[in-house]
Amino acid sequence: MDLQIKSFEEYQRIYQYSVEKPEEFWAEIAEHFYWRRKWNKVLEWNFKEPNIKWFEGARLNITENCLDRHVYKLGDKPAIIWEPNDPNEAHRVLTYKQLLDKVEQFSNVLKNNGIRKGDRVCIYLPMVPELVIAVLACARIGAIHSVVFGGFSAQSIADRINDADCRLVITADGGFRGTKQIALKSIVDDALVQCKSVERVIVLTRTRTPVSMIKGRDVWWEDEIKKVETQGNPPCPAEEMNAEDLLFILYTSGSTGKPKGVVHTCAGYMVYTGYTFTNAFQYQPDEVYFCTADIGWITGHSYIIYGPLSQGATSLMFEGVPNWPDAGRLWDIVEKHKVNILYTAPTAIRSLMAAGDQYVEGKDLSTITKLGTVGEPINEEAWHWYDQKIGKGKAPIVDTWWQTETGGFLISPIAGVTPTVPGYAMLPLPGVQPILVDENGQEIEGNGVSGNLCIKYPWPGMIRTTYGDHERCRQTYFSVYENLYFTGDGCLRDENGYYRITGRVDDVLNVSGHRIGTAEVENAINMHSDVIESAVVGYPHPVKGQGIYAFVIASQHHTDEDLTRQDINQTVSRIIGAIAKPDKIQFVSGLPKTRSGKIMRRILRKIAEGDTSNLGDTTTLLDPAVVDEIKEGAEKLRG
Ligand code: WTA
Question: With 90 as the cut, is the pLDDT of residue 331 above it?
């Protein structure tokens, strides 16, 4: 069986086969990868514990699939094209051969610094090629990487390092983002005050920001590379891994306070990201593929690094932001590097659309063959703008629905093969069995229906556990509905059987395509000394998709409410990171609670949305009068 599906008829046939004979199907797909040893059993599973094992008995290394196996034929093909933040700085290209050399070199650096198979390594780097090198070097020696997005605070880094007991941190002096410089090393230093497990910090030079290098702990990336060079640059053979050995941990927000470490393992994740990448985007041998995500999120892991590289693709990574030096930057990059496939988030599309068409006009986007979106529902207006202005009406848009936990796309069009409808993720990819259920877990059959989206059969890229706390994994994903993986998303299946994701049904916000738990933000707000209690909800935001709205009870009446708001924002930045700062803070004297003390978020959501016409039954509240006060306050805040 070929990896790429070429027609809708073929899609239907293969989909059917993948449901009827999942093990045979995935075994045929897995044949397209390089194994040191093949599997004994394709799949063993139950969703009760859960216990999910793909390709048991197989031995492999994902970097041999992403690098070594391509070098013979594609050695001089660009693997990574790097576009810097500043358009006046030279871009960089790493061919497959060069990337392999650099990965081997840095693998030896890791070994020289005492890192072995199974050790956890925290990576806190800007979007530079060394981030890809660091990730792949970990994978090559069997160390487990935990990449932390560069926008997270010291406290967030410390929590993640401690949860995973990381022995080593890889960071840079600083990072560039638009006009800003982020002092990454200094943030790491603040974090490490709380982290006993870290023995070594490797620091890459990027911004030439002064840093404090702690004796016996901190070393420079460049010096460590020189050491390997003086050792004669020995090769670093890939560690042979078991199929279910851990590949990486990536922390993500849920409906409770503490982010959880989603665990992905070697074989299944490799097969799944490679298969879904090549299919959804219908990647052709010489195409340049540009994903604008940050490698700090799952999109960057799966669809900048592992998926594209395992398929021998050219993956373009961008250090900067879409609106600097102006809102035409992405289009300049497309023109400069003759990008064929562009994959970005609806938030970026909306903000570039709002900046005006003059930034697109005159840019040569004729190379574009396919477009993609990810991370949040896309509104029709943004979809059409993307289609017309960027794709010129001839590039299929794949609206890829998936999650950190799913490893790769679950529901997505296949470019040029499946039909597309604005706002719809369309149909499940082969091997994916979605079902809609009602509150009681009863399956909702037929078309033209909505419900909570679950998956009833395993796929190779799925989450295996939450690091250090398997019970949490079970409770979060596998206990809400018996024998089903629960996604946390609401979903509509229309008359044609096409799927449209309607948004989270739990207490998780999606701000600019980033997942943020309301409880997490509340905990951060509550750290402020003047805050007694808070409740956070999402509200529709024209660019970010969702904005963060915080209702706050403060201990004393402040004459300068704005200053208190700034203080609270500062606190949230400190505890989580600037991405979690509330867009709106409303001071209230009480919160709508049931007699049992539960906050009625439904009411707060309505008020935040500005829709107070029908708040439902408020008579069961402990203090119904508080609702009127909050309503009035909200109107005042809107001005
Ligand atoms: C949302 C990002 C609508 C969804 C890959 C999901 C989407 C959450 C889409 C996962 C889409 C992702 N349409 N909503 N195409 N893709 N989502 O873990 O709510 O950062 O549960 O993974 O983003 O976010 P995460």
Answer: yes
